Amino acid sequence: MKTEGLVEDKKMKMQSFIIISAIVGLFACGSKQETPQPYIKPVPTTPTDKGWTFETNPVWADDFSYTGKPDAAKWSYDIGGTGWGNNELQYYTDNINNASVADGKLTITLRKESMGDKEYTSARLVTKNKGDWTYGRFEVKAKLPTGKGTWPAIWMLPTDWEYGDWPKSGEIDIMEHVGYDQNRVHITVHTESYNGAIGTQKGNSALIETASTDFHIYRMDWTPYAIRGYIDNNKVMEFVNEGKGTATWPFDKQFHLLMNIAFGGNWGGAQGIDTNIFPQTMEVDYVRVYKMIEK
Predict the structure, then answer these.
(1) Cα(263)–Cα(148) distance, rounded to whole angstroms?
(2) Is residue 114 part of a domain?
(3) Which of 176, 192, 238, 242 is catalytic?
(4) Which of 88, 113, 139, 171 is catalytic?
(5) Is 8 a catalytic residue?
(6) 176 given a catalytic annotation
(7) Is the pLDDT reported for residue 265 higher than 80?
(8) Is residue 55 part of a domain?
(9) Buried b / exposed e across 185-197, counting CB within 10 Å, b at 16+?
(10) Do 143 and 178 belong to one domain?
(11) If 283 and its partner were Cys, which of 3, 102, 143, 190 is the partner (CB 3.0–4.6 Å)?
């Protein structure tokens, strides 16, 4: 009888333990369901200027100390006559008549000649997948073309377009010049919030009296804090990261370089074109890219 009583007592204790454990577990689960963790959206923060500097030896460069077509290990071509989103009049080729290297310089040549349905040819060189960078110092020494309708540019586009199509992923214009406003050189950035399509682009310009007769150094210093543009080491433009997200600052991804001469188009041809100016050239003495030193 005592043994049976002990067994029965143990059974009752075990059942009580099981019931209590179940109740505790139920309350615990109920507690988790009743107090979900709220999602807190990260708030963009305005970066501080850490005074970033740049290495003194380039990580990528072309000094054009050879002869022939541009170095295929460093440059590719955009080809075609689509108007390039700006109603441009030229057809871009990979022809040596439009882009050639000799006497220590690259020459991009705009010509009056038919190709496809266009009456003009030119070249647009790009470093995409051969030179792509996030932050750095970009320096190009160049002499610009002249003549109404010409539209040379030294600029940068996103390599992967991670924030969407233009202008969401950004554009950096190191140098732009339009022939109807001779010697005025523009430095500009475009983003979703600030872009030329809606007249809110951020930039500045400077009058360079010998833009088409002498070589000048066009430079862009790009850090997490700001993009600063220089001509002959004189600061012309500064665009500071406002810390409001990618609509104003998509400049934390890889970009690559482009160099070209367009003809006509929305801006280049805004005051007409001169069909008696050909050929026209942009000569480039060197292109150098310097790595930003992290802090």
Answers:
(1) 9
(2) yes
(3) 176
(4) 171
(5) no
(6) yes
(7) yes
(8) no
(9) bbbbbbbbbbbbe
(10) yes
(11) 143
